[in-house]
Amino acid sequence: MAQQTPVRPLGATGAMIDEDWEALRFRVHRSAYRDPEVFRTEVDRIWNHTWLYLGHETEIPKAGDFKTRTLGGRPLIFCRDADGQVRAFFNACTHRGTVLCRHSEGNTKFFQCFYHAWAFSNSGELAALPGDDAYPDDPAFRASMALRQVPRLQIHEGFVFVAFDPDVPDLLTHLGPAAHYMSLTAKIGEHGMTTLPGVQLYSVKGNWKLAVENAMDGYHFAPTHNTFVGYLRETGFAVTDDDQYAYDLGGGHGLLVLTGHNGRIGMVWEPRFGDEEKTRTVTKRRELEARLGPELAAEVADASRILFVFPNLLLFDLEALTIRQLEPVAADRTDVRAWQFVEVGEPESVRALRIKTMVSFVGPGGLATPDDIEAYEAVQRGITATADSVDPAHDWSDMSRGMANEKQGNQGRSIDEGAMRSFWRRWAEVVGAGTSVAGDPPAGTPAAGPAAGGAGK
Amino acid sequence: MVKVESREVTRAEVEDFLYREAQLLDEWRLDEWLTLIEPGGRLEVPTTDWAGWDATTAGYFVADDYELIQARVKRLKSRKAHAENPHSRTHRMISNVLLLEAGAETVWISANFLIHRYRDNGAYTYVGRYEHVLKVDPDGLRFRLRRAVPVMESMDPGARLSFIL
């Protein structure tokens, strides 16, 4: 690992995270969202040295299928080679660095650079070297010019992760308890799950951490999504925030378990899904119980979940399913990619209901996500007000909600800010940001998810 | 000009219909706009990787049935539609109108659009084409399917679809 310089301390206390268990205050210095130097440090410490979600293996189902995708600012080829193995390469010709594949997707046996016509097989070997008589007649030379693989690639339940640092621990170690929640989602479909074409690609004028906070923040739901809640009410469904909890899964990963937010297609019926779906939900629940047993079936089906896998994956397991990937571009800009994730082999009417229902909520054209985007962007603009030396005492964002409850040892609610706090603690640890802790944090280890048999306290 | 069972439809009539619709949307006269949608009509915005998939088989940006169109209008009229309060300023240009095919009571048309949107000192450009199915009434036209296909490679920073594209 390269020598690391600490993030320049900012704020009155010299820390970027200010946590005080006497005053019950948790706040984040606003330079964390704003400062290009912090952003560069994040790319170096997080994106260059942590497992990153690349894509789902169902995006490239056949040998030769490929997608090109930028991750951590690096252009990559995500492909399935001739033998069916999933691979990730740096999308740069080993000769002069030209972007090798300039298509966003396709199927090919070879990636040929247009510049000097070097060609590489979809497993990375240098397959064509025009005018090779002027190069060393040595297999070692050709081997040295093979396409560069991303150092680490591992797959959990079809979710493909890569790391640019060869020394990261195993993927399952990184995922910790988050792996279980990915597995729950993967179990929904009797015949498996798949991503669909029709990927939402959009970009927001906000720091990537605002998107993480927003997803781990049940407190914003009622005021921000007032019109969406109103729409649900009119369809005959009353949203509630009662008895719903947030979990710190360690490693910066977080989970909201939402029992009162919506139905779940095939699992928990609500009126807007229609009568046909009501009947199918009964059948589908029976199928889940027969296949998984009643306890696991209940865990898979009963509650909606929003899972954050540090640093760039959000899995929305709600009415239907969306996989969302965050790609930081600058301190004030984040590219977002979102896929519909569906049951393999489900009836066309269910597929249609799923797509209609999910995109009406989640995505830049939905009835809810645009208001979240408005929030990230309004924060990004608003936090310039207190920047620099103008108002240092107030250049902080507050995330204290629920600390009193947490101090008493109670499980944090989805409408508290505990999941955001655990994210920020991990962030500070990884980027080397200063943290000031006063008073005594709650004793004991927080529950890494709901206890078996229900989303209890 | 094309002919459906009941009457003829000219390009000028379709152009007038599209221009009038653009005016209603730019002026945020959403109740009047809603009357241009046939009950049972659909509002669709495919994603930027669209390759002709319909909204029953692929992800979309917008895949509204008539109930959701009504809910969308109701939302956009609310002060609590934060993403559009205050409203974006939009300015729509429509051109290259083609009458593609006539059905028994519908005509399938395409047109290019260029929409400029301004908000919070940001300027956003949305470029694409419409591929609409219009129901031909005795005295006018209505949308059976209103589909706006973005031609951009992705939605630019800040270019959300909080308004009607």
From TrEMBL, chain A:
Signal peptide: none annotated. SUPFAM superfamilies: Bet v1-like, ISP domain. The keyword Nucleus does not apply. Residues 434-457 are annotated as: Disordered. InterPro entries: ARHD_Rieske_2Fe_2S (IPR015881), Rieske_2Fe-2S (IPR017941), Rieske_2Fe-2S_sf (IPR036922), Ring_hydroxy_dOase_asu_C_dom (IPR015879), Rng_hydr_dOase-A (IPR001663). Residues 438-450 have a biased composition (Low complexity). Belongs to the bacterial ring-hydroxylating dioxygenase alpha subunit family. The keyword Oxidoreductase applies. This is Rieske 2Fe-2S domain-containing protein. Keywords: 2Fe-2S, Dioxygenase, Iron, Iron-sulfur, Metal-binding, NAD, Oxidoreductase.
